[in-house]
Amino acid sequence: MKLVLINPRNRVSLYGDYLWQPLAFGYVAAATPKHWEVELIDEQCEGALDYGDVQADLVGITAFTTQAPRAYCIAQQFRSRGIPVVMGGIHASLVQDEAMRYVDALFVGECETLWPQVIADVERGELKTRYQGGTTGASLLQPDRAIFRKYRYEYVSAQTSRGCPMDCSFCSVTVFNGRLFRMRGIDEVVAEIAAIEEREIIFVDDDLNGFSRKARERAVDLFRAMADARLGKRWITQVTINFGDDDELPALARASGCAGVFIGLESTDTKSLALIRKDATSQRRGLDYYRANIDRIHRQGIGVVGSFILGIDTQNMDTIVADILRFAEESELDGLNPTILTPLPGTRDYARYDAEGRILFKNYPADWEKYTLAFPVTSMPNVTGAGLMRRYFQVLQFFRPEHIAALYWRTHDRVSPDAAWHALLWNRVWTNYCLPRGLYRDSPLAETYPAALPREAPPRPTPALDSTEPYPPIPRATASLQ
Length: 482
What we know:
Layout: E1 2-7, H1 23-31, E2 37-42, H2 43-46, E3 58-62, H3 68-79, E4 85-88, H4 90-94, H5 96-100, E5 105-109, H6 115-124, E6 130-134, E7 156-158, E8 161-162, H7 173-177, E9 182-183, H8 186-195, E10 200-203, H9 213-228, E11 234-239, H10 248-255, E12 258-266, H11 270-275, H12 280-299, E13 303-310, H13 320-330, E14 335-340, H14 348-355, H15 385-395, H16 401-414, H17 417-434
Parallel strand pairs: 1-2, 1-3, 3-4, 4-5, 5-6, 7-10, 10-11, 11-12, 12-13, 13-14
Antiparallel strand pairs: 8-9
């Protein structure tokens, strides 16, 4: 019997070829009995496909919110031929009534424990309409990575923990994975990493270091064990800003192979941090706390990509562009992840914006494609949607090719070559998102830009990094935008 697992494409993808293995499918494959053939089809790598000739006894689909319309279209192609479809993942788990209209069975929550039951039910011809997977414990199956070999991914995916102790209003992670920070055994994690042939790894943990003393001690022990095992890997991950509260944790992370971390900084003003319920320390200490911890992480040779949200009600729209870009330069961030506040289903933000009548696009499921984190789907008190997009495009000037080159060499010389390389892989996909959309046409260097930024170290920039104007000029004054 054959199981086909499908990762639907995003119609609009911010991240281009910056791809990592869709790890959930590795766990599904590992939980599937060996007498089943398992095939992965990753439309993020191949593009949208026609499935008229694809044969299967069962199809499994997972999707984030922006992928949902495509996921339903795929499901229809198989169901029209009598092939059953099971859908799981964060969107289906949080919008269950909608998803059930398009599939034969819904899998809610984490799948590893209950997936063998799904297979057994299919073999008996008794597939149920809903399976409640819940959450797993401290131990996970070793994922079956053989299904990923047909594609070229930037990173091998691995996971050391699940759940996030934070409670940010815009985030659906805690709704799906819970706030309980579930940590895998260290020996189990090290053994899994040692078995991976590739060098570049992304830990897809929601928050690798956690917030409790126990979580921090576990991170210390994990990094020491990885360093002692001499795994020879370079890895990146997502952490919270407290990762840099002292020198010990970044130093141990670097010794174990850490090259870069992604940190949700979210906003440059404390009122906005309070509104989205960011952690209390960040609310209280603000940018000085951010700067000090970023510097501490940098000193250990680890790069930092900072994520920011535009469109929070309390933000000053006259200064937001300058505030973000100024902070990025002053703290020497190695990369940015600029997003637009998007009320994802299941979050407190969605409930609040919906109750206030401020969600503009609700023709679901078609409108889920607009929930890309790069498009305003709500009304805002201090700016129009068009005005917010213009500001967003101004922040994206950060990714002009000449600035990416300057960033690469600044990180290379002041942080580490490893950090520079991994930051370049991140930044270049944003550059390549912007270039074909004409977002840099006002640049005085526009005629010199390539069609796409190549995957290689850029030449040393001119002028030097110590120039009084290292950042490319931004067209039009922010204050004039409505």
